[in-house]
Specification:
Layout lengths: L7 H4 L3 E4 L4 E10 L6 E7 L11 E2 L5 E4 L3 E4 L3 E3 L6
Parallel strand pairs: 1-7
Antiparallel strand pairs: 1-2, 2-3, 3-5, 4-5, 6-7
C-alpha cells in the first residue's frame, strides 16, 4: 500500500508557483493548529517581486504567508491557486 502523506522535510525548500506558472518563492516553514494538526499557512522565503501584486498576510517578522487552502498540488513544486490568494 502506497503512503500518500507529504512529510514536512519533503515540502520545505520547494518552489511555490501559481497554476499559471508565476513564481512566488520557496517554502520556508508551515504553520499549523497544535491541537488538531490542521495546516494553516505556508511561510514564504526568497519571495519574488510578483508577490507585491498579491495581498498576502505577513508574520510579525514581515514574512509572507500563503493560506494552505490555496494549495492545489504538491509535487516537484507547490502549486497554488492565485484566485485564492487575492
Amino acid at each position: 500500500m502506497q503512503n500518500n502523506k507529504n512529510m514536512f522535510s519533503a515540502i520545505t525548500e520547494k518552489m511555490i508557483v501559481t497554476k499559471e506558472g508565476k513564481r512566488l518563492g520557496f517554502v520556508k516553514d508551515i504553520t499549523f493548529e497544535t491541537k488538531s494538526g490542521e495546516l494553516i499557512n505556508i511561510i514564504v522565503k526568497d519571495s519574488t517581486p510578483y508577490t507585491k501584486n498579491l495581498n498576502l498576510e505577513r508574520t510579525n517578522s514581515n514574512e509572507l504567508l500563503i493560506p494552505y487552502s490555496a494549495i492545489i498540488a504538491i509535487g516537484d513544486f507547490v502549486i497554488v491557486s492565485e484566485e485564492d490568494l487575492i
